[in-house]
């Protein structure tokens, strides 16, 4: 009898099936890890954009010349005069148009919730909502950004300094 060295068809098929099962298990693990990374990266990007735009609006609002400098004060738009770095007066307008947040004509943030991605609430010295520019002492700002079905909402307030 001759001794044949090699593998039978059944042995090869079993090895292929075992390798396929191991590969699928490993691939599932890798896919879950990549999906988690994408989720965290998207959330971080949306949060960074919301935080940057919120900080920019609050800094500008704190530099407001006076409540008399407020020219537009609606729940979706805020326009006012503020001091620049040299002490001069500049006009600043924050508003939402579509899914973009604008500071004057420049896009400050994208992917805002539409509608309702930007809202302002004007408060008097007692913290009560007011509709008169003269009585405004602080402005509460809310920014909501939606990116890849992830919603980030930040809310803060700026107390006017130059009163």
UniProtKB/TrEMBL annotation:
Pfam families on file: N_methyl (PF07963)
The UniProt record lists the keyword Signal: no
SUPFAM superfamilies: Pili subunits (SSF54523)
InterPro entries: N_methyl_site, Pilin-like
Keyword field: Membrane, Transmembrane, Transmembrane helix
Coiled-coil positions: none
Transmembrane regions: 12-34
Domain of life assignment: Bacteria
Protein name as catalogued: Prepilin-type N-terminal cleavage/methylation domain-containing protein
Species annotation: candidate division WOR-1 bacterium RIFOXYB2_FULL_37_13
């Amino acid at each position: 009898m001759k001794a044949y060295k090699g593998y039978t068809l059944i042995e090869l098929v079993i090895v292929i099936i075992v390798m396929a099962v191991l590969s699928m298990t490993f691939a599932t693990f890798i896919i879950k890890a990549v999906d988690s990374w994408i989720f965290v990266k998207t959330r971080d990007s949306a949060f960074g954009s919301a935080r940057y735009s919120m900080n920019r609006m609050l800094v500008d609002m704190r530099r407001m010349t006076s409540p008399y400098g407020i020219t537009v004060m609606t729940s979706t738009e805020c326009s006012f005069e503020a001091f620049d770095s040299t002490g001069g007066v500049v006009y600043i307008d924050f508003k939402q148009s579509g899914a973009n947040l604008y500071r004057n004509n420049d896009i400050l943030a994208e992917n805002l919730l539409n509608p309702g991605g930007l809202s302002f609430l004007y408060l008097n010295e007692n913290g009560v909502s007011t509709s008169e520019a003269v009585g405004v002492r602080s402005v509460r700002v809310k920014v909501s950004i939606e990116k890849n079905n992830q919603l980030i909402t930040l809310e803060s307030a700026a107390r006017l300094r130059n009163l």
